[in-house]
Amino acid sequence: MEAPSETCNRVREAFGDEAVELIENASPCAEHSLLVKPAFGLKIARWLQQDPELQLDYCSNATGVDYPDRVEVKKDKVKRVVDGEETEVTEETEIHHPGCLEAVYHLYSISKKQGPVVLRLRTEDRGENVNLPSLTPVWRSCELQEREIFDLYGIVFNGHPDLRRLLMWEEFTDYPMRKDYEEPDDYEYEPTPHDSVLERVKSR
Question: Which residue, among 45, 93, 102, 50, has the nearest Cα to 73 in the 3D structure?
């Protein structure tokens, strides 16, 4: 099977340099991935499925990731004049990185017995712009897994055939797998409260 960098280059040849980026993994597994711009998501998914070299005909796993807003403090050594003398000081600069949500797909070729190719799609932010294209039209196995991501992370998959909650009940309004999720104080509307939940309610 070709290296992810080769796949990335061939996707760029087909769709342009802005369509995809190679995300390298420095861990021992070295499982590099393809970060695809959402506007190209469905087209590139079909290309990966139909390409003669890859024939990625099966999505084994799709999951969500939450990247909250974060502030990076960058430290630089600079020279400044202090009390008439030039000296080296450490200067700190704050860099703000806006958060986003991500859908990650692990793709295999059953016909060629190869894989995985890891495909990533990221939303613009974690608030208003959380839409991504559904890849269910390409890989049917994505249907329930995208519903789970929608349910737990809040990513809205455009073009999904049946996008609704899978694990939480319909009246639930939050996304339990987000890193800033806070458990509710009121469990009154939980349809099947467990003993531990009932004990917590009684203790309040």
Answer: 93
Please enumerate in sequence order all residues whose Cβ is within 8 A of that of 91, keeping only pairs 6 or more positions apart, or say none: 75, 76, 77, 78
pLDDT digits (tens, 9 = 90+) for 36-61: 999 999 999 999 999 999 999 999 99
Contacts of 197 (CB under 8 A, 6+ apart): 187, 190
Contacts of 112 (CB under 8 A, 6+ apart): 1, 54, 55
pLDDT tens column, 69-100: 988 888 888 888 777 788 888 888 888 888 99
Residue at token pair 């040849």: 13
Which amino acid is residue 103, in one-letter code?
A
Could you give the 3-state DSSP secondary structure of residue 161? coil
Q: What is the DSSP string of 22-86?
A: EE---STT---EEEE-GGGHHHHHHHHHH-TTT---EEEEEEEEEE--EEEEEEEEEEEEETTEE
How, if at all, do strands 114-122 and 33-36 pair? parallel
